[in-house]
Design a protein that fits this description.
single chain; about 140 residues; mainly alpha; two-stranded antiparallel sheet; 2 strands; about 5% strand; elongated; odorant binding; olfactory receptor activity; sensory transduction
C-alpha cells in the first residue's frame, strides 16, 4: 500500500516538484540578495522580503521533511517485519515477510524531477546552492 502510494505521488508530481524547487532556488538567491543589498527604499520592504524568504524556506523544508518521513516509514516497515515473531508463522507468511524485508532495502522515494530525492539532504543542498548563487550576485554587485 505504502509503496504504491509513493509511486503514484511520484508519477503525478515529479515535474511539479522540479519547477517548484527551481523557482524556490531562484527566489532564495534573489530575495537574500535584495534583503542584504541595501537597495530597498523602506524598512517595510526589507521586512516583507525577509518574511517571503523565510516562508519559502519553510515551504521547501516541509516538502523535504514529508519525503524524508515517507522513506523512514518504509524502512521501519522492514524493521517491524524483521522483529515480528516470524519464526512461529507458516512458510507462506515467512516468504511474504522475507519479500517485505528484501523490498524495503531499496526504498521508493519521491523525487524532484527524477534528479534528487525529496528529503532533508536535498533541502540542505538547495540551501547551499542558493547561498552560493547569492554570494556570486554579491560579488558581481561589489565589482561594479
Amino acid at each position: 500500500m505504502l509503496l504504491s502510494l509513493i509511486s503514484e505521488i511520484e508519477f503525478m508530481h515529479w515535474s511539479a516538484y522540479l519547477v517548484n524547487f527551481s523557482v524556490l532556488l531562484i527566489i532564495f538567491s534573489f530575495a537574500a540578495f535584495e534583503v542584504t543589498s541595501g537597495t530597498p527604499t523602506s524598512p517595510a520592504k526589507v521586512v516583507n522580503l525577509a518574511e517571503y524568504l523565510l516562508v519559502s524556506i519553510l515551504q521547501m523544508f516541509l516538502l523535504c521533511d514529508c519525503g524524508d518521513k515517507l522513506v523512514d516509514q518504509e524502512l521501519s516497515m522492514s524493521q517491524a517485519a524483521y522483529e515480528s515473531e516470524w519464526y512461529h508463522c507458516s512458510e507462506s507468511v515467512k516468504r511474504t515477510l522475507q519479500i517485505i524485508v528484501l523490498r524495503s532495502r531499496q526504498p521508493e522515494q519521491i523525487t524532484v524531477g527524477k534528479i534528487a530525492g525529496l528529503n532533508l539532504d536535498t533541502f540542505s543542498d538547495m540551501l547551499s546552492r542558493s547561498f552560493s548563487y547569492f554570494t556570486v550576485l554579491r560579488q558581481i554587485r561589489d565589482e561594479s
